[in-house]
Design brief:
This protein is mainly beta and 192 residues long. The protein is built from no helices and 23 strands.
Length: 192
Amino acid sequence: MIYYLFVYPYYKVVFKRIGHRSKIISPLKIDGYSNISIGNRVNIEYKTWLAAVAHTNSPTCVLIIEDGASIGHFNHLYATSKIRIGKKVLTADRVYITDNLHSYKDVTKAIMDQPIQQINEVEIGEGAWIGENACIIGASIGKGCVIGANSVVTKDIPDYCVAVGAPAKIIKRYNFELNEWLKTAPDGSFIN
């Protein structure tokens, strides 16, 4: 049986902010409630893990999910500084988004015994679509982007691009002069 956790108004006091008509369906785990802001009409599907915990001693630690975003099943969003998911962002199932990594510099210690390393803040632009099993690690995704299934994004992707692969590379970009999606080189320049 699936239990629905309708967030508004029951957790209004616990979260930093919770918007009207937002819901979290049977979350796997939620860490750092007071650092998590959820906008209006946000849908977070079954067994997603939300976290905003300052393991890296960042002066601010926030996870922001803006209005109308739809987060798929079994997603894992873990901020130690800042992750912002823009308005109407759609993520498929099993998407991982983080602004940090486990350190592995000291080969004399197990990785789990090394500190968490802060990398870059993450922003997912308005209206982007993140495909199934994608990983976004310390990189930002532009407005209206499509990130292909199984992609690993470690470098920023500009607005209105399609990126795929591990590591993710740009394969298409929207051309506003021609009003169509065109193939590109990995740097985003159009191929004639």
